[in-house]
Automatic annotation (TrEMBL), chains A, B:
NCBIfam families: dhaK1. Pfam families: Dak1 (PF02733). Keywords: Kinase, Transferase. This is Dihydroxyacetone kinase subunit DhaK. Its EC number is 2.7.1.121. Transmembrane segments: none annotated.
Length: 330, 330
């Protein structure tokens, strides 16, 4: 295992120390692994909390800040954070207008956020929840009943974050979140496996001449393996399953995401491929992201996310955002 | 070789196609491989041109935009762009106030930019040049007389870009550039070699239990190899040679840069280590960058850059910038 780490069991806390050192605009609790804004949003606005296992950076901690999340709860690598920590984060950021929980659809996350929501509501905090399940690769998976939550989470955190900043109430923010989950889909692939520090070896063996199509973000199995193929063929295998599942002629926000170990020169090349295919299929790409936004440790590979857009979503997308991972307009 | 590419010889152009598709605010010439702003800066302002071999993305093309570069000239992977293309870029972005060439200190780049500057001056364009040679690892190298130009290039492009945007004249921008190169140093290391697409195999062999300290950004040899070590020891080997070379008690801008294949969770962990060591040595880190800014294809590893700061540099640092790779204040 070749990694820039000390003891494997210290990776999360030591990485959070770096986040704290680099970003004085964030408040990082090294005990609970909760990242919040150093300056909370105004009283009376809906707060947004997300979280999950670590290893997907910049998601979620890198998306805390104005226009996006109020708190991120970081579990150990690929391990859901406990309900008490999610509850503590919820309580810490509630500004009297309720809290939206953004949960990626993995069994542990769903259960723990559910329990946290119950605990919070016992404290008188109104909690709404959106479960992201955008991965068209598989119906059920190793860690999931139903589809896995992947890249759409990034776009959703941006969009509902902007809505909350506008002062919209919890019901309206929850409605928006559900509209986004209904209109976005993702599909990913891997060239190599990531390596969980505590495991010390790659999560799965992928021969030098093979790739895996439909991979999740934890090394859980995808649809199938096949011989390495040119970028053009890979792009086709990401685009087609999304278009088969989502009627998306018209405007869209598109993300070509890197899994952590693939360099930008390759991600742009892939974006060139997928954007041409999407446009040829009648998708009008009005906004895009290309880069590492939801990763799987040092896995090489990429994923594609497509979200149908309308004027409201574009207005929210263009609203100012200031986080370590996403920043514009301020 | 596991990469998201089609034919190796098409990587550069196909990646540029992706850049063009993703960034309508840039103008990408697929013939000359020159990236410029779609909307040029105002007449009468100094223009900034950089470039060099590809494979270091987002540098340089990802730093074209308001507050940073006016043009980037992309050579093939790890290959200097030809003088005629640098000259064409220079001519294209000159707004009547002269052009600054930012050149990383590699023999090919230095010669080609020199020749381009001569060609441009024959056309009546005033050209100033700054050669970045910030790498403390080695005195001469495989491709260099003198030190190599690495991470400081990123900070320099931001700072002189801001100065040019303010309307300062060429002599003043050149002076500033030289002040920056005199006050910044870098040191890098690799866990793995990157793979040049046309070569099809790693540039160098680094055994599973070894790392290389003092690596450049092209896989050229560093100072020495040694057994894999904890992040803390690696950080010490990046920090000490910089502090030995640069008297930097007081304010500084610090970048912990990823080489392309190392995920953000590791880069933040490394930033935690180096920032604590620098602060202990009397460096006051007033601004920082953590992420992939000047890479070496899919190499795993990182580099550290330290630049002594003063009020003027901080003002220029904080000035608005809007590029694919760096964006704030707008």
């Amino acid at each position: 295992m070749k990694k820039l780490i000390n003891a494997p069991e210290d990776v999360l806390v030591e990485s959070l120390k770096g986040v704290a050192a680099a970003h004085p605009e964030l408040s990082v609790d090294l005990e609970t692994h909760v990242i919040t804004r150093a300056v909370p949003k105004d009283e009376g606005k809906v707060a947004i909390v997300s979280g999950g296992g670590s290893g997907h950076e910049p998601l979620h901690g890198g998306f805390v800040g104005h226009g996006m999340l109020d708190a991120a709860v970081a579990g150990e690598v690929f391990t859901s954070p406990t309900p008490d920590r999610v509850q503590a984060a919820t309580q810490a950021v509630d500004r009297g207008a309720g809290v939206l929980h953004i949960v990626k659809n993995y069994t542990g996350d769903v259960l723990n956020f559910e329990m946290a929501a119950e605990l919070a509501s016992m404290e008188g905090i109104e909690v709404g929840t959106v479960v992201v399940a955008d991965d068209v690769a598989v119906q059920d998976s190793l860690y999931t009943a139903g589809r896995r939550g992947v890249g759409l989470t990034v776009l959703l955190e941006k969009l509902v974050g902007a809505a909350a900043e506008e002062g919209r109430d919890l019901a309206s923010v929850v409605d928006l979140a559900h509209r986004i989950t209904a209109n976005g889909r993702s599909m990913g692939m891997a060239l190599t496996s990531g390596t969980v520090p505590a495991a010390g070896k790659p999560t799965f063996d992928l021969p030098d001449d093979q790739m895996e199509i439909g991979i999740g973000i934890h090394g859980e199995p995808g649809r199938h393996r096949e011989p390495l193929a040119p970028a053009h063929d890979i792009a086709r295998q990401l685009v087609d399953p999304i278009l088969a599942d989502l009627d998306v002629t018209g405007p869209a926000i598109v993300m070509l995401n890197g899994m952590g170990g693939s360099p930008l020169i390759e991600l742009y090349l892939m974006y060139g491929e997928v954007s041409a295919m999407l446009e040829a299929a009648g998708v009008q790409i009005v906004r895009n992201l290309v880069g590492n936004y939801i990763t799987s440790l040092d896995m090489a590979g990429c994923s594609l996310t497509v979200l149908k857009a309308d004027d409201e979503l574009l207005r929210l997308w263009d609203a100012p955002v200031s986080t370590p991972g996403l920043r514009w307009g301020m």
